[in-house]
Amino acid sequence: MDTIKEGSYLLISSKKSDTYLVKVTENGDFSTHEGKILFKDLIGKPYGCKVKTHLGAEYIILKPTITDFLKFIKRKTQVLYPKDLGFIILKLNLHSGLRMIECGSGSGSATTAFAFALYPEGKLYSYEARPEFINLAKENVKRTGLEQIVEFKNRDIEEGFDEKEVDALFLDVKYPEKFIYHAYNALKPSGNMCVFVPTANQVSDVLKELENYPFALTEVLEIMLRTYKTVPERLRPDDTMIAHTGYLIFTRKIEEQKNGE
Questions:
Q1: Which among 14, 61, 183, 225 has most CB atoms closer than 10 A?
Q2: 130-140 pLDDT tens trace
Q3: The CATH number of the domain covering residues in 9-64
Q4: Are 191 and 215 in contact (CB under 8 A)?
Q5: Nearest to 107 by CA among 132, 82, 144
Q6: Do the domains 9-64 and 68-253 sit in the same CATH topology, yes or no?
Q7: How many whole angstroms separate alpha carbon 51 and alpha carbon 57?
């Protein structure tokens, strides 16, 4: 049975479905207006158990999923949501054993999701020009225990990527059309690429640049997510929804045809 240990991360949920992501320390505690839970009383207990605060409020103790880590990620930039990341992972066909390039690292949201998909035998090369962001991304990835999958590179990509013949590539930079050439050279034939941009005019710029290289099966889409209130007698959509976060451009590299072929 998987039990709670010192250093473990916990997802603590109240009856109102308020959730908190916390790290267990032997002498620490979790505290809200409903009371306090001592971590030393949780060590050795199984995940999924119910506990009460010293004031009698009941909480559920769960093992965090990768989605939970992404929800509570420390951020300095806009992050991609699981609704986007799950689809990107499937479209890029990410799985253990593949090699992938990501640019840029940002706060590490996509980095964490990609590393989770590539675990345990894959490799992610994450490029980021801004040192403050790469340090934050490293911190967020380390929380999930996936840091061995990621090799961070703190530099600009004006001169291209170090890696060749990678299986997949993800571009999330201000002017991605400037780096399509480098992306093409880094990908293996039939390799998958995704470009993320927040505005429609950026989509046009990327599509125009893609026409200069042998890419195929290009598509553009956006993903919206609508959740519902979980009250059987009053089932209806939530008052707010996660709508537009950005446009996703997917394409695949094909071999450049040589003269006479």
A1: 183
A2: 999 999 999 99
A3: 3.10.330.20
A4: no
A5: 132
A6: no
A7: 8
